[in-house]
Amino acid sequence: MRCGPLCQFLWLWLCLSYIQAVPIQKVQDDAKTLVKTIISRINDISHMQSVSSKHKVSGFDFIPRNPDLSFLKMDKTLAVYQEIIINLSSRNTGQISNDLENLRNLIRMLASSKGCPLPYTRGPEALRNLDGALKESVYSTEVVALSRLQRFLKEMLRQLDLGTMC
Amino acid sequence: MICQTFYVALLHCEFLYAIAALNLAYPVTPWRFKLSCLPSNKTDDYSFLPTGISNTSNSSGENEAVVEARFNSSGADSANLSEAAFHCCFWSEQDKNCPAHGDGTEGEGFVPTVGSSVFQRPGVNWNIQCWVKVDLKLLICSGQPLLQSPFTNSDLRVHLFYVLSEVVEDSHLAPQEGSFEIVQCNCSFEGRWECRVPTPAAQLSSTLLMYLKITAAGVTFQSPPMSVQPVNVVKPDPPLDLHMEITEDGNLNISWHSPALVPFPLQYQVKYSENSTAALREVDEMVSATALLVDNVLPGSSYEAQVRVKRLDGPGVWSDWSAPRVFTTQDVIYFPPKVLTSAGSNVSFHCIYKNGNTIVSSKEIVWWVNLAEEIPPSQYDVVSDHVSKVTFLNLKATKPRDEFTYDAVYCCQEHQCHHRYAELYVVDVNINISCETDGHLTKMTCRWSANPMQSLVGSSWQLRYHRSTLYCSDSPSIYPVSAPKDCHLQRDGFYECIFQPIFLLSGYTMWIRINHPLGSLDSPPTCVLPDSVVKPLPPSSVKAEITANIGLLKISWEKPVFPENKLQFQIRYGLSGKEIQWKKHEVDDAKSKSASVPVQDLCAVYAVQMRCRRLDGMGYWSNWSSPAYTAVTDVKVPVRGPEFWRRINGDVTKRERNITLLWRPLMKNDSLCSVRRYVVKHWTSHNGTWSEDAGNQTQLTFLWMEQAHTVTVLAINSIGASLENFNLTFSWPMSEVNIVQSLGAYPLNSSCVILSWILSASDYSLMYFIIEWKNLDEDDEIKWLRIPSNVKKYYIHDYFIPIEKYQFSLYPVFSEGVGKPKVINGFTKVDEKHQNDAGLYVIVPIIISSSVLLLGTLLISHQRMKKLFWEDVPNPKNCSWAQGLNFQKPETFEHLFTKHTGSVTFGPLLLEPETISEDISVDTAWKTKEDVEPATLVSLLVTVPDPEKGSVCASDRCDSPPFSDRGSTEVSWEDESLGQPSVKYATLVSNSKSSEAGEEQGLPDFSIGKGCSSGNSPLKDSFSNSSWEIETEAVFILSDQQPDMISPHLSFSEGLDELLELEGNFPEENQSEKSVYYLGVTSVKKRESGVFLTEESGVLCSFPPHCLFADIRILQDSCSHLVEKNFNLGTSGTKAFVSYMPQFQTCSTQTHKIMENKMCDLTV
Fold this sequence. Notes:
heterodimer; A: mainly alpha; B: mainly beta; 6-stranded mixed β-sheet; 65 strands; 33% strand; disordered C terminus
């Protein structure tokens, strides 16, 4: 309990120190570029190119569906996706997970620049069903997770252009 | 000691407590204690002890046992021991109160203690120590007799009885004898014994109750009970790896390793001794660390150290001492003795130097490097009286010298250095780490070269990195927390490390850590952001084409998927071939997917490649894409139609003739880029216009019937027909129009002929010319060329055979029709003049310049002659031959004589005596021939003392060569008649090129030159002595203008010889009066050139044209002699004497010596 405020303060201090060194516009550009990069990475996965968007797959409620537009929700959603994707088996999922890590840090930095520092979010608890889903249907999990992530990132890209609120 | 005492006291208290709890058993101490058994007369109450044990205990905790010992009488050693009960007790040095068996009343339960004197009483004593080994599995109790053992090994038996306190507690009663376990102890010959009691690990804290039963020589000694907690008597193993070294600070570091498997903190006891020449000291120190620093180390000293260990807290047993270790310091101590550092850093060395038995004062110490370079004293520091310090600033990397990879640093006293040195290793750790992220943005490859560290033997290096969350800091630093990265050595000597997957926007701070036995070094850290070192994949789907109708090279491409940043592109293109000359084109528009560049050759195959990089300049250029090639297709309609000509077949006189049009296939540059077919268009006044498709043929025949027939040849490709085409009109009237006046063909070589022509004026509009040529000796086809109308000369390049005939025709082509050709057969012969044009251009200027030079020379000579003659003009009154001459206005030199010739007739010479004084002095001889030549005509110096009476005497420069040949021989004459009028006679000789003539005349022996060159003759000496003695004069006159003139040739040398012969015939007295010889020279031969050549001098003497020498008479007056025979007339057929006109008379009676060899009296 005592570490919480201290960690938040250290994180804010760290972010502010970076903000001083890195122009916020560059941070935003990098965030958008990184979003595009992740989208391209998902497109680059072979089995994702032929997935139809018309089908709806049930049983994956733990995978975020509707993106929230605030920095906080963005960060949390990205944390969920990062946790899911790191458990996937495709070739580029490790790299996408790293990209999501960088993207989360950029979002935090952007949020800090707008006066709404975000607490560091650890792995969500909502992924209790992930192990079961992975055991039962790895392919479906991967396709659904990556598809939803892609849609989320596109919406996030749009929001970054418009100006995201805390 | 206070602590120790406190601990002992505390321990004692605990023991007391335990003993109380365990019915006052003797607590075993970590140190040695003693068991003493003394004879006793009383058997105590052993109510507490197990059955069979007799013991008395008191409340004070003192322990003692009365042992019923019954000695056999046979025990020799114990003979003094009466057969009585023995009272045994434990005691130690710390507690010397052993409860003596007193005479107290039985049943009191107390045994009075006795003093130490009791131990002097006869009895048995053992030193006992109990400990637990460090493995905590065995409790060992050993004993050895204090005095010489009265028992032998054969009869000594020791048993240890023990029981754990838990067993005791469980019974809540005193342990019965049956609850004790027994172990038999090992006994040695010396009376020592050792008992091993297994101690379960879980019961280390339990109390072990024991007692001993020692049987020897039939007597049984039973010890009082003793209690021990195994954990309190652990005895560790002695410390390991005792090591001593001099530290960087100059201290002696004694270090060791603690024994393994010790479950509690330890303390150490170090004892060392220093043995130096100065002092001997022994120190015993307790430390808790595994090292001890000893300061004030002296060079040349030896240190011996030992260390033992014991439990730090609580009771414990000291381990045995480690094996002693001896360390001897050297005479010179460097600290640090070896240094590993990085380039650019500062390093200091200290030194203590003992020279002999004396430690050198630090002020006297000097420092050297590699025994080659003395370090400036400014880098020294005096630390103490004996410690000197040197500091190296901003070190440079050590350059390996063979196998020595360090610099040797010496500490010296003046110039005396100890052989020991310190080692300085300086490594350049400025290692450049370069990274590159691949085009998929998933892998970052970092490379670095280990070359700088290769020389550091025994070192290893490792890349370590720390990843920041985002970006790099401005000044990267080495993080305390870092991770190693495996790198693999590549063939190019670089190490390659791969990060995959990567965090694109995380800063990777990397550095190289060099590990060496002397320490580790870190290279300057570098922070790399993978996103900023991306080397993209090259653009894909690169296509190239030449755009139709526009004619540009168009390149299209697709950008790579990654990175998502804006990209710039670079295109390089060139004509496809082995060695492509690339041209580059930049495309900065990130959204562009195509670009067009103008190219020169639209019908060539171009190779195109592309590459890209981030528009912001970060990262690297991608590799070039695979080349794309353009295809050659029709780009535009042909630029023009083909050039064409005709061949007329059939009778020339007929009106209808077959005409075959000939044309050359269009080249790609004109056809853009191919020709599908050719079409011939016809225009005639009668039949109008029509076309004929010639297909791919390059000739077409048609019938020419009309007065005028115009044709055009079109080239057609896939896009259309050529727009600009040539027309050719065949017109009967125009075929008679001739505007070519002349035509010449001049071969330059076998591959080039120059054709030149001259045109006449014409009213027709000349479009161009057609040149036709063919080999008449062979049936070659006609070759033709179209020449612009403004050309007058044309170089035809073909293969021409000079010995064969060629026909060249030049057709003027008018817009109205083809004119009449000019035809020539064969090459035009060039006149020699023309052939030698080149030579002429060189020779003519030379001739002109030579002529100008000659003319100038003649003019100068002329002026000089005029001056010579007219300034030294003889008095006509006194000089008969000069009468009638106008000396004031001479026309020419010849005029002088011509005029005279006309006025004087030959006849008998009736000369009036005139006093003529001949003094001819040649002061200086011409030394060289060249000195003579510049003057065309040179006269000897003529002295005319009295102009009124003097006469003209021109000197002959023919004389000069002989004088010249004689070197500086001076011919002088003794002027004995000063003031006497005199006439000097000289020969006037024209200097011109006549050597050839002379040779041709075949008069080698009768030249005046030869006569002049009498230096080679015997006359020389006499001549040098007195020219007059020679008494010879050669006077001659030659004419070069009289064809019939007989040229006299006098061989003067021979003449002189003859004269010399004749000389002897003259009486001596006659020498006083010298005669003037009037010499006539008969003509020997005609000379065309009319010049006279001296044979040796080469000086040409010209003769006055008016000199008609028919005869030569030698007149002798009274003072002269006729030496007619002295003249050798050579080969002349006729011996004739030509008289000089006017004649000269002899000199006066006064004797004059005439030095001149030749005198020419030029007269008519």
